[in-house]
Predict the 3D structure of the following.
Amino acid sequence: MRVVKINAVWCSGCLVMNRLWKKVIQKYPMETIELDYDMDEEEVSKYAPGDVLPVLIFFEGDQEIFRVVGEKKEKELFSIVEGLVD
Amino acid sequence: MKKIVSYLCFFFFLFFCSCNFVLAKENDTITVYFFHGDGCPHCASESEFLKSISNQYDNLEIVRYEVWNDAENAELLEQVKDVFDFNRNGVPFTVIGTTVFSGYSDAASSRIERAIQYYQEHEYLDVVQLVVDGGDISSLEIEDHFGEEEAKSDEQVTISVPFFDQVNLKNLSLSTAAVLIGLFDGFNPCAMWVLLFLLSVLVGMKDRKRMWCLGLTFLLTSAFVYMLIMLSWVQVVVSVTTSILLRNLVAVIAIVGGLINLKGFIQSKSKDGGCSVVDSKKRKDVFARIKKFAHEKNFLLSLIGVVALAISVNLIELACSAGLPLVFSQLLAINQVTGLSAFYYTLIYILFFLFDDLIIFFIAMFTMKVTGISTRYSKYSHLIGGILMILIGLLLLFKPEWLMFS
């Protein structure tokens, strides 16, 4: 499974989720592609992230299977990832 | 029979004795004597206030004496002041029973209203009426019972605290308001995104000395701009003659702002929590400016750039967070807190307003990592800030005296 993670440096919720994501991938290692909303504008627009950040897009091959929008609690994020991994 | 006659005589004796005093309970009228001058701004404010409350009490009578153009009224004012042994000059001068009020302010309006309520339930001597009637007032003992009660209630809010001697709880209330409102205002994410932008660029530079200077300059300038706006508002409210109108206007703004905050909270519950994407053009412009001055070789130009950014961002973002600072400035104004005291309370407000910014700044300074505070806090700051604003707005409209802490 591959994850595209869209953040922004000005977004405090993204910074909080970065910390959580580090914990997640320690337990469930997976390829993570980090994109910055402002620096990687062209690439980001391909994923139509909407107007709330951060956005985590989970891919199985080239197929998007799930999208997490906004800041989540640690327990909620782990439960989502566990559901997808299983 | 003799017994009945003697009882009746005693009763009539008491009745006639009591007739020497003009009792409010018996004629059921409370009279407010208002000595004023045409063209005096504070008189105009008080006149407006008295007009507004005259309809609230069925038994309230307002008697007006213009003293600048009417020699007889001016003479009466002097006589009344002599009776009260009051030496200061000037109008407005108001008398209710044995209580006098010199000058006018929001705090005075509240005292006048409390005095009216006090005399609704207590006997009072109508001194001005006695002076007008030319009665013998030399033998009267004039005691301001209302003033004594007010002084007692002031004493009751003073407590002894080790190291601080006597602490007035009313002053503490204003400090508590500064801490609470400042803290909730601080969690408003309006200007936070610019600080994060700035820190991310500064951390990338790895130049700690420059980081400290530019970051602190940004925070201090933001605090200065905020403080300047708040103190200016206090000054405007204190000096404007139609302060009641202004107070009601701020009350309405507070209630509307509070409702908007509550709406924001309710909407955020159904939405995904996180950061809403700010206007793309504004974001790019701010980012370009930050990068430009951060990499500027001339340090002085860098500092000027940060100052200009902080001023512009705070002025633009003020519309987003104007509610709470406006409400707090109004609180200072109705408590007649001006000058150094206003500066002191505003400083407390600003310190707590910057609390979350300072935490993020210091963490970035010491760890070279930019940290974010969960957006959940800003969500709940909408809820609590909203309730606080509605509450203060309603009190400003209906019970402003409850907000007069000192």
Observations:
- The mean pLDDT of chain A is 91.
- Residues 53 and 70 of chain A are 5 Å apart (CA to CA).
- Helices of chain A lie at 12-27, 41-45, 74-85.
- Chain A touches chain B at residues 8-16, 37-38, 51-54, 69-72 (CB under 8 Å).
